[in-house]
Amino acid sequence: MNGQGDLVAGLTADQLDRFVSFALAEDLGEGGDVTSAVTIPEGARLQAVIATRQPVVLAGIPLAEAFFRRTDPDVRIERLADDGSRVEAGAPVLRLEGAGRAMLAAERSALNTLQHLTGIATLTRRYADAIEGTGCTLLDTRKTIPGLRVIEKYASRMGGAQNHRMRLDDGILIKDNHVAVVGGIEGAVRSAKEAATGLCLQVEVDRVDQIEPALSAGAERLLCDNMGPAQLREAVSLVAGRVPIEASGGITLETIRDVALTGVDYVSVGRLTQSAPAADIGLDYALG
């Protein structure tokens, strides 16, 4: 899934329907929004503005819209900014007008999703900006909340990263546990090559002396794990362009540029999806 064509935030129509249904069911329970039912007149209409309260890179606007349309198919929505846009604090991003009870029923699910995904996109943009001009590409990882991977990785794309593996069947990545079971890098790589899956074969190394055995056995890409800049420069020199090199492990905003300047092709950062704080985005109402 690449977030293009008829996809919504990386989701197909069926996936979007299931996501919205599940989130609303979780929030509304069997009795619905009882507070709104006993305080808001049945025919009341509301106007609302969703606005940022900090500078952000947006992600999840179409999903927020989907929640409001689910509870009120006739809701009027004006989109004021698109996903991937840099938006300053105080900027309105959506205007809505519709049935009051329905809008309040959708509010929390819509905001939770928008805040979470925008938080990912905003943090990702900071990392992407930090390595601008180095020729190195920022990657995300599989460190995502179960069930939310597609939309979280969509958000990282909105922030300027490329997706690495979406799933375990997207590529072969031989890590230390695979090597330990097989008994060595060479044996693990040869076994993967013999399987002839047609998938890219990447090997994780955490020492420079593991690089040549991995390449000799047929590795098509290397992941240098938890190596400092000096080790990474040595690895780049040894590989000499034979395969792409990805650096990963413990990389922060303070260190990512130094890592990128070593000459590696990619740098992957798990905290883009694992640790991004929710963006501060609010919704304010007025009578319609």
Structure in words:
The protein is an alpha/beta fold and 288 residues long. It folds into two domains: 13-128 and 276-287, Quinolinate phosphoribosyl transferase, N-terminal domain (Aldehyde Oxidoreductase, domain 3); 162-268, TIM Barrel (Alpha-Beta Barrel), CATH 3.20.20.70. The chain has eleven helices and twelve strands. The longest helix is centred in the middle third of the chain and has 31 residues, at 100-130. It is elongated and about 75 Å long. The two termini are 39 Å apart. The model has no long low-confidence stretch (mean pLDDT 95).
How would you summarize this macromolecular structure in one to three sentences?
The protein has 288 residues and is an alpha/beta fold.
Taking Cα atoms only, what radius of gyration do you get, to the nearest Å? 23 Å
Estimate nothing, just give the exact number of structural domains.
Answer: 2
The general outline is elongated
Major sheet description: 6 strands, parallel
In CATH, the topology of the largest domain is named: Aldehyde Oxidoreductase, domain 3
* SSE arrangement, N to C: HHEEHEEEHEHEHHEHEHEHEHE
Mean pLDDT, nearest integer?
95
User: What is the level 1 CATH name of the largest domain?
Assistant: Alpha Beta
**Low-pLDDT segments:** none
* End-to-end C-alpha gap: 39 Å
How do the helices and strands line up, and which of them pair or pack?
Elements: H1 13-28, H2 34-39, E1 45-52, E2 56-57, H3 61-71, E3 76-79, E4 86-87, E5 92-99, H4 100-130, E6 137-139, H5 149-158, E7 172-174, H6 176-182, H7 185-195, E8 201-205, H8 211-217, E9 221-225, H9 229-239, E10 245-248, H10 256-260, E11 266-268, H11 271-274, E12 281-287
Parallel strand pairs: 6-11, 7-8, 8-9, 9-10, 10-11
Antiparallel strand pairs: 1-5, 1-12, 2-4, 3-5
